[in-house]
Structures are given as structure tokens and as C-alpha cells.
Amino acid sequence: MIFTVAIDGPAAAGKGTIGQALAARFGFAHLDTGLLYRAVAAKGGDSVAAARGLVAADLMGAGLRTLDLGQAASRVAVLPGVRAALVAFQRRFARAEGGAVLDGRDIGTVICPEAEVKLYVTASPQVRAHRRWLEVGGDETRVLAEVLERDGRDMGRAAAPLKPAQDAIVLDTSVLSIDEAVQAAVDVVQARMGA
Ligand code: CDP
After folding, report:
1. Counting atoms of ligand 1 from 1, which one is nearest the CA of 65?
2. What's the start-to-end Cα distance of the chain, in Å?
3. CATH number of domain containing 140
4. Tens digits of per-residue pLDDT, 151-160?
5. How does pLDDT run across 94-103, given as a tens digit for each residue?
6. I need a surface site. Which of 4, 26, 112, 143 has the fewest CB within 10 A?
7. CB distance 123 to ligand 1 below 6 Å
């Protein structure tokens, strides 16, 4: 069976948590595409060459989820050459036999417009910053500023900007628990599978 769940949305909205839970629930493979851009930023040097030479081991690094690498990732993610180098791998993953969940910024709009389910997961900036602060610690005001700066860059870039696909279902997790958000996403996938 080929079945793609595309999850897009701004930083720390809950995409990864929902993506992992959907993958476990339906037995699909899961790809956190943000890790690709974080790994390119972590390699340094020529970003396009880094993107072209990316291998699975590059995604395993324990230190990829820091705030600073999030910022650095969004800077390399504006480069069309970096994005182009990562498209084929993501498309193959999305349409591989057995079903796939991908979360990122452009999955439903660019990587897999034919996805069977498209979710746009969002939450208020304050809620998202608080969640990210619980993960990374430090100064919460600074975390909020970084989240807003990154959202602005991701939404404002010319290449594959962050925006909901026209046919995406918007899931605002501001006042939802993790279980409620996951259940809402499960309901959408189940409805589509039954259709
Ligand atoms: O986990 P979080 O939402 O904070 O960020 P991430 O998904 O790890 O993504 C880090 C950065 O990579 C984003 O701010 C985007 O600039 C970029 N990215 C992208 O451009 N396209 C994607 N499909 C995924 C991430």
C-alpha cells in the first residue's frame, strides 16, 4: 500500500510527536525532514555539497536538535540548491511501499502534493515557545524570539515557503493535550483510509 501523511507547520507545533504516533499506530515509516536541514547545517562548508553528500549516519547525531542548529538549518533551507538536493530522497521515502509519515515545512506543498492526508499542525507562538523551552531550557523569552525569527524566515523565503497546502486540514494544538492532538490526527487518517 502506498499512503503518505504529510505534516507541515511552524517550529515546535507538535509535528514530530504527532508524526511518530501516527507512524506507530498505522505501521508507517516516519521521516522528520527537519533533521535533513539540521544535518546539512551541522556539516558546515558548502551547503549544497553537504546536502548532496548527506548519508543516513549524518542524521543520527545526538546534537542536532539544539536551538542554534534550528536557526542554522533555516538559513541553509532558504537555498534552492540545498532543497533541490534533498527532494528525490524525500519523494522516494514518501511513496515507498508500506506507508509513510513525513513532517516538515513543504511536504504537502512541494515534496508530496499527492499525499493522501495533509495536516497543517500549528499552535500559538507562546505555546510553541513554551514547549520548546521545556525541551531545551535556558531563557524562555529568548526561545520565543528564536521561534518567531525562524517562522518569519521559513514563511518569507522564496523557495518552498511554509504555508498550508490548499487541501490541508489545519490542526491547532494550542489547547490540546498530546493525546487529544494525536487522536485528532488518527481520526483524519482513519477517515481517509476508510474512504
Ligand atoms: O523541530 P522544529 O519544528 O523546531 O524544526 P525542524 O522541523 O527540525 O526544522 C528546522 C528548520 O529546517 C526549519 O526551521 C526550516 O527552515 C527547515 N526545514 C525546511 O525548510 N523544510 C522542511 N521540510 C523541514 C525543515
Report:
1. 8
2. 15
3. 3.40.50.300
4. 999 999 999 9
5. 999 999 999 9
6. 26
7. no
